[in-house]
UniProtKB/TrEMBL annotation:
Pfam hit, one: Sacchrp_dh_NADP
Residues of the Saccharopine dehydrogenase NADP binding domain: 4-101
Cross-referenced InterPro entries: NAD(P)-bd_dom_sf, Sacchrp_dh_NADP-bd
Name of the featured protein: Saccharopine dehydrogenase family protein
PANTHER family per record: SACCHAROPINE DEHYDROGENASE
Length: 345
């Protein structure tokens, strides 16, 4: 199975190439800079790997013959759509590691017909927030059937993030968060400054599994708002993160982004934890709550993206654009990751 990794020279791209090799699959390293791609191949112990140098407008040829492409080049808001277009034209399934909410919505809405005609599956948001978040939301909502209100929360503490993540989060912050209500998406409250949110009646604090008390949360543009309503019958979906993390993202000026280290060292990665939580309330007031948690968000993102691409090729999924929970059986996928998850209610 040949898996192209676009943006293979970046931090997430290099982890993804290593994971492709670990799974016994054949990586094809794709990007704009030959030296950096060669360095990435050597670092992964794959000196002889297939390397294809191509700019964004010549990617179709570079992706030909690949079964799937994993796109790791962000900000996706700026760079992503030409890669989706090229994957579809080359007849390769598409997965990416984005967490950029509006970009995910544009891909799911804008490429459905082209992907369906080409017979390929396009699944954005296969990272440690969008993938497990969409899947745990699906499993949580299934306890209620019909959902009046769902809140998807990313409850990780501030921890080491890469420069690429900082650059992408600055782009997300600039676009502002969406919320979903009565069949449509609209811009939620303006991005919070350092303070707690006052957005349209959403929660201002949440109980965090494994922690005493409540954590202050702020409205933030998470993938779940644009993915969950596509497979959960919910009247309203909103997303929040810890207020201290929102405050950090709100301070990402270009100078601050440039000062963030390019990579996150292995010790910081293995010491860090991510946690995605979904809270659903039914029209009758019944509630269910689910969460999924694990360590090393970047390593987990590589595992999620590679396993997603592998399943699209090996097991198949409907042609068209799909959210993570539409493309893959949520329970089976979360169990494969070896993460901790639970749904109550
Ligand atoms: N949501 C999540 O949980 C999650 C988790 C992990 C990663 N991510 C996302 O993954 C993305 C990558 O992060 P990272 O830390 O790996 O960033 P990075 O190290 O800066 O890597 C960026 C990659 O994009 C390529 N690139 C940049 N500009 C390009 C252009 N104009 N044309 C073609 N390629 C270009 C770079 O190629 P060069 O080497 O040639 O510059 C590099 O390969 C970010 O958007 C990040 O938010 C999300």
């Amino acid at each position: 199975m040949r898996i192209a990794v676009h943006g293979a020279s970046g931090f997430t791209g290099r982890l993804t190439v290593a994971e492709v090799l670990r799974r016994g699959l054949t990586p094809v390293l794709v990007g704009r800079d030959e030296d950096r791609l060669r360095k990435a191949a050597a670092e992964a112990g794959a000196d002889g790997a297939d390397i294809r140098v191509a700019s964004l407008d010549e990617l179709t040829g570079a992706l030909r013959g690949c079964d799937a492409v994993i796109n790791c080049a962000g900000p996706f808001t700026l760079l992503g759509e030409p890669v989706v277009r090229a994957a579809i034209a080359a007849g390769a399934h598409y997965v990416d590691t984005t967490g950029e909410q509006r970009y995910i919505g544009r891909v799911l809405d804008g490429f459905w017909e082209d992907a369906r005609r080409a017979g390929v599956s396009v699944v954005p948001a296969m990272a440690d927030d969008g993938g497990p978040g969409d899947m745990i939301a699906h499993l949580t909502a299934a306890r209620l059937g019909v959902v009046d209100e769902m809140v998807v929360a990313d409850l990780r503490h501030p921890a080491g993030g890469s420069r690429g993540t900082a650059r992408s989060m600055a782009a997300v912050f600039a676009e502002g968060p969406l919320e979903y209500e009565d069949g449509a998406w609209r811009t939620a409250a303006p991005p919070p400054d350092a303070g707690p949110p006052r957005a349209s009646g959403g929660p201002v604090s949440l109980a965090v599994p494994g922690e005493p008390g409540q954590a202050p949360v702020s409205v933030f543009a998470l993938p779940g708002v644009v993915t969950v309503p596509r497979h959960v019958r919910a009247r309203r979906v909103r997303s929040v993160i810890r207020s201290e993390v929102a405050a950090m993202f709100s301070s990402l000026t270009p100078d601050v982004v440039d000062a963030v280290p390019e990579t996150v060292d292995p010790q910081t990665r293995s010491a860090s934890r991510w946690l995605m939580l979904a809270e659903a309330t039914g029209p009758d007031g019944r509630r269910s709550r689910g969460w999924v948690t694990g360590s090393d968000g970047y390593g987990t993102t590589a595992v999620i993206a590679v396993e997603g691409a592998r399943r699209l090729v090996a097991d198949g999924a409907p042609a068209g654009t799909l959210t993570p929970a539409q493309a893959f059986d949520p329970e089976s996928f979360l169990n494969h990751l070896g993460v901790t998850w639970q749904v109550l209610g």
